[in-house]
Request: fold
Amino acid sequence: MRPPSAPRSTFIERGVRVAVLAMLLGVVTASAKDDAPDARLEVEALLHDNAVLEKRVEMANGKEFYLLLDPTAGKLKLMLQGAVLRDYAVQGLEVGSPRIAFRSRDLESGWTGRIWSQGNLDPARDREREHVQIPDSTVMAMQDSVAPKPKIPLLPEEIYVVPHRYHVRYEGGLSLEVRPLELDESASFWRRTRAATARWYHDFRASVAKRPEDVVRLRLILAPTDAASLYRALPPDTRLFVMPRG
Amino acid sequence: MRATTPSDALAAATSLQMRQPADRRRGTALVVTALVLTAAGTMGLAAYGTGYGYRKVEADPVKIAAEIPADPKALKQMQSKLRSQQRQLVTALERKAPRGVYIVIDQTQNRLYLMEDEKVLREAVCSAGSGLILQEQEHGKRQWIFDTPRGVHKVRSKIEDPVWKKPDWAFVEEGKPIPTNPEERFAPGELGEYALYFGNGYMIHGTLYERLLGRSVTHGCIRLGREDLREVYRAAALGTPIYIY
Reply:
């Protein structure tokens, strides 16, 4: 025979179990409900980050050199196939659009998070190639005694004069306007004024044109040595990716 | 009180009539001048405010076409799918980046950087291609362009005490006949103690003319000073990537 207390205790135990289960279920449901907005936020962030990563992978898979500009980190990197070749510290960064009588055009959206291509220096870093034609060996043998002294080639700093302000223009209307951090103090007041006026006139003409020279202009302030180095070293037809701020 | 005669009154009226148009003209001139100056000032100011307007770079999130589901289950699925996609993308990016030691050469400014995981281990002054174009006058009238090739290369072989096998252009440049005997092409000691060959006849090697380092003087190879070459040779293994820009 079963003791009379046994069914009662089972009943109580079952009751307790059901209550605990119900509580757990309640907690789980509540936490699931609380998780929903978090999950949504994470999905949004993941979509954003993956879109950026996709572009970076696309550039790393390409054969072109590219610049990766990260406004948040203040870095400009010259890269090739995922490798960092040079790293420049960005001292200042502003974005500009054509302005008429103090009224700026609306900035074209989506200029970040997009790959800009065919970037080239303006003014171009041109160097005339020297053609050498050596007289034939018999003439050389005759001239051996009066051979001219070989001239020492110039240093890159002497060959390439870096303008105070220069651009890297990309197809589609974005340009990087690179300026050194400090003004060229060695130049005279009049020279600086003339240069500033010339710059203003150039920008004035560029902005009032039917098709403005640059739809989006990024003004990048670099240390003078970095600005000069970038001008001398930037390969032709680079791509650019500006990391979007989420 | 002043006594006025009819003739005085007439004279006064006439002079007033005479004076009034002159004053009006003067007034008009003043107004026109003021207007012109104002217009000129406004135009000048407007011109001054024309060009490019700059502002700080603000948040500009990427526009995403994908729709985020409201259903928690579908949301979870999307979340896990995106996480896995992110892992794949990060892996793809990491796979592209060089691991360990790599060499970067700035051929315009004649600098070589020995790198490891984006850190510069050593910066060296080197010499890269001169960019000269050599034209042959005899025989086939061939042409050589002395550029250092941009792009990604790899260390294919490492050579101690390399011996330079002079190519045709070396003889053309010197104005000497191209030898028929291959033995006459060998020039020991010209390349320094070590050479790192990276394909198509290009190498990183030493030089007898260290005073020319920093200048673009080579036929496309990279010349380094003795100490830098030793360090680079020691650090770079076969397969080490060389990035030239």
Q: What stands out?
A: Chain B touches chain A through 73 residues (CB under 8 Å). The first strand of chain B starts at residue 51 and ends at 56. The first helix of chain B runs from residue 6 to 48. The helical segments of chain B are 6-48, 72-96, 168-174, 226-235.
